[in-house]
Prior knowledge:
The chain has 127 residues and is mostly helical. The protein is 98% helix and 0% strand. It contains one helix and no strands. The longest helix is centred in the middle third of the chain and has 124 residues, at 2-125. It is rod-shaped, with a radius of gyration of 53 Å.
Amino acid sequence: LTMMATLNALWYAPVTAEVDDRNAKLLKTLSEATDMLGKADEIQVEYTEQIREAREKASAEVKAYREKTEKAIAVQVASATAERDAKAAEVRKKLEADIEAKKAAAEAEIEKRKAAFVKDTLAGVAL
């Protein structure tokens, strides 16, 4: 029993104290690691939310730009179409005017040839 008391006082007490200190340090380190993990999770959630918001904002900006560009293109296409139609109508009008002018110019020649044809036909029939 005396030997046990002596071993407890001299040998086991310091070893037990070392083991207890080691356990305390391990618990402290584990606690700090758990706290850091919790903070890391919070930061990850926050960054994930920020990324989601940034993606939504970027998507909205891209959509708005696309709509703006499509409207601008539609306006340009409509303008080009109207200009093309106006030029086509102008060319059509000019061609019709040229045709009418040529018809009017040829009218005298047609009447002259018609009279000559009738005269030749009547002369051929001997009337």
